[in-house]
Sequence to fold (490 residues):
Amino acid sequence: MGLSNLRYAKSHEWVSVTDGVATVGISRFAVDQLTDVTYLELPKVGKTVAIGDEVGVIESVKSTSSFYSPVAGEVIAVNDAAVQDTGLLNEDPYEKGWLMKVKLAAGAGIDHLLDQSQYDAQIASEA
Amino acid sequence: MPELRRTPLHAWHVARKARMVPFGGWDMPVQYTSILEEHKAVRTAAGLFDISHMGRLTVEGTDATRFVDRMFTNDPAGMKSGQVRYGFVLNAAGCTLDDILVTKWSPEAFEIVVNAGNRGKIVAWIDQHKTDCDVVITDRTFDLGMLAVQGPQAIALAEGLIAGVAVGGLKYYHASPAECLGAEAVVSRTGYTGEDGFEIIAPNAAIVSLADVLLQRGVVPCGLGCRDTLRLEAAMPLYGHELTEATNPIHAGLGWAVKPEKGNFLGREAILAALADPTPRPVRVGLTLTGKRAAREGANVLVNGTVIGTVTSGSYTPWLDRSIAMAYIQPHHTAIGTELTVDVRGTAIPATVTALPFYKRAK
Fold:
């Protein structure tokens, strides 16, 4: 997946949209900040989510964080493999470590999200 | 915020891609690759920790024993030369200003290791309380570094690097002067991981060289992240969590390191009062939670919906592969096997009171 096509929420979720379906995960920067992920709670398939909704929990050795939906729509898939093997998030946050797929609501988009250069600027200020 | 202090190994950590975090006023590595992997390396082989951030003080003079006796809950007069003991510096209320390690070299020379975040407080305490004692206290924190090498292979992998003493021949909680790569050093059979191993204090340059050689020999660099999960499995208290200025070591279950019978020390009257007071107080226990979710510091512990205590440290731990915690709870719920719940961010998670330590190495 070309990282330059991703969009980001300020809360470190990444989004990639294909044919009206947004794949969502968390960024490498966020994963590195968390340390080893040990527990993952994801939304139920079929759940309707709005931008900024808390839809899950990501726990690492050092911290517990909320997972927020960066888009609006209906959850059509979650990554059960990552729930079973949370190490996938640390190994490969952009491919095998994806978290959920959301069918975007009518009229919903991703224009509110940061592009790569905006996100890079944000993490440079946080690092 | 004042600038973070750097240990002699700071550049060494950065060159090895450690993630650095502030800890006790120092910029310290929390992990190099993975807390889980670093934790397992210490349990199965050997890990290397930079603990140069800890405060190192020497106490020398004709009144050294009298001074340490005043400051320390354990009994320095009863210690042999080369012996190391754990204990506390208390305030007048009997609560904990710091938990410290004291090494005795002679009745006139001691060495003290204090927590990084408490060094300033302890130095101020010393200035205030040394009064009539003929002692010279020297803060060696900045001209000496300190490494911990921990794990079942720690002693073997350091073979030949430390001269003047056989590290493997040192008894647990004993120390000796030594020579580290040609420099004057002190080595002790101590640690904060629940494994065998040693800690070494040496000049900054020697500490960096020793770290390089140990790395070449396969010792795994470990950050503070696994230091925390290792000590949690071993049920060792961490200042700021299990011990605070509001915690009496008797209630922390650490009365074995408090010797009121030895005579006077600061906080003794409050300790005697605590020992005589029949009022039930929260005591420190271990909890094992169902599932992998961690109970963090501050999480409430409940019985039938009533809060009976608070978690002080909790984490998923890699070696035991489960979620464990230490908590202070009301004493009539502390029997091993008692079923409780812990409020983890609004979810009631079943937990069982578990004997401490959670992990004990095979002898």
Observations:
- Residues 31 and 90 of chain A are 6 Å apart (CA to CA).
